[in-house]
Amino acid sequence: MLSVLLLILIGGAALWLVLEPLRRAAPEDPDAPERARLLAERDRLYGELNGLEDEARRPDLERRAALTLRALDALPPPARTGQPGRSRTLALTGVGVAALLTVAGAVTFIPRWQLASLEAGEASKVQAVLKLPALKATAQRTERSADYLAWGRAAFDSANYDQAVSAYGNALKTDPRQPEALRRLGILLLTRGEQTGTPIKAEDAERAALLIRAAAQLAPDEPESQLLLGFALSRFGQDQEALQALERYRTLDPAGRDADDVITSLRARLNQSDPALKLYAGSCASCHGASGAGGIGPSLRDSTLSRAALRSITVNGKGAMPAYPRLTDAELKLLLDLMEKWQKEG
């Protein structure tokens, strides 16, 4: 709090010193054309980002926005002329104080004020872009796994995927069992075709799947492990396994919304192809989860109840479980067969 107050006082003094001798003279700003061009470019990029429909263009637009912000920050303040004698001295002193203030603020909290106008996701990506050069230099100097991971994380988050591949590849050289590096290299390899427009080779797809599966086995309780595993499995048409992984992700990270669209799509495909799942989705999934792994209600996959007990609870209800006495014999058989199948699968 004291540092903020001190900054305000210094800023006010510097502003007065600069403006007092120059208030009657407002000369032409030599950087005005470039500043106007950069501001227009910034507004145009923000407008495109706000109305973006093709998500494949987002990384490039965000990178260009970050570079535009940096270019704006690099421009000097608008030039002002002073008056002869004492006024000129005051103006030069004020410019010096303002320059010191700018340097001090640039490495503390002034960038946060600039980022406050951005959405949370955009601000995070801009910050990641700004950190990249220093993180890369540190990792290349120390060659430590933690530093490679920090560099890779910033590159991945800011959509600098070539740098992310390099950073995570070096991290795996120092620690071949590093889950984050394994799964992110896997997903980058799997989606490389979308970034380059070149179809992925079968052997590359298999290699990517192995990397992602290995990461999920090494770190099964990390939400991103299950998220990327679910995405990968859905690409290979393993809908049921993909749905289980993505529901596991939602359990590990209840606030995570990255998998919502894929989960909806998987449920629709599964329900259309399997009448038992379609019936289950309409009556039971809201409590027991789309794949029976549990939710508000207990997991059906962990159940040890006999078929007779399952039938009785389904028809008559028990505790918070509602009764479904209107199910036909055929519908009841479908549900019981499905629940017994899940018990065997676990």
TrEMBL record:
<keyword id="KW-0349">Heme</keyword>
<dbReference type="InterPro" id="IPR036909">
    <property type="entry name" value="Cyt_c-like_dom_sf"/>
</dbReference>
<keyword id="KW-0249">Electron transport</keyword>
<keyword id="KW-0802">TPR repeat</keyword>
<dbReference type="GO" id="GO:0020037">
    <property type="term" value="F:heme binding"/>
</dbReference>
<dbReference type="InterPro" id="IPR009056">
    <property type="entry name" value="Cyt_c-like_dom"/>
</dbReference>
<dbReference type="InterPro" id="IPR019734">
    <property type="entry name" value="TPR_rpt"/>
</dbReference>
<keyword id="KW-0479">Metal-binding</keyword>
<dbReference type="Pfam" id="PF13442">
    <property type="entry name" value="Cytochrome_CBB3"/>
</dbReference>
<dbReference type="InterPro" id="IPR051811">
    <property type="entry name" value="Cytochrome_c550/c551-like"/>
</dbReference>
<dbReference type="Pfam" id="PF13432">
    <property type="entry name" value="TPR_16"/>
</dbReference>
<protein>
    <submittedName>
        <fullName>Cytochrome c-type biogenesis protein CcmH/NrfG</fullName>
    </submittedName>
</protein>
<keyword id="KW-0813">Transport</keyword>
<dbReference type="GO" id="GO:0009055">
    <property type="term" value="F:electron transfer activity"/>
</dbReference>
<dbReference type="InterPro" id="IPR011990">
    <property type="entry name" value="TPR-like_helical_dom_sf"/>
</dbReference>
<feature type="domain" description="Cytochrome c">
    <location>
        <begin position="271"/>
        <end position="343"/>
    </location>
</feature>
<keyword id="KW-0408">Iron</keyword>
<feature type="repeat" description="TPR">
    <location>
        <begin position="145"/>
        <end position="178"/>
    </location>
</feature>
<dbReference type="GO" id="GO:0046872">
    <property type="term" value="F:metal ion binding"/>
</dbReference>
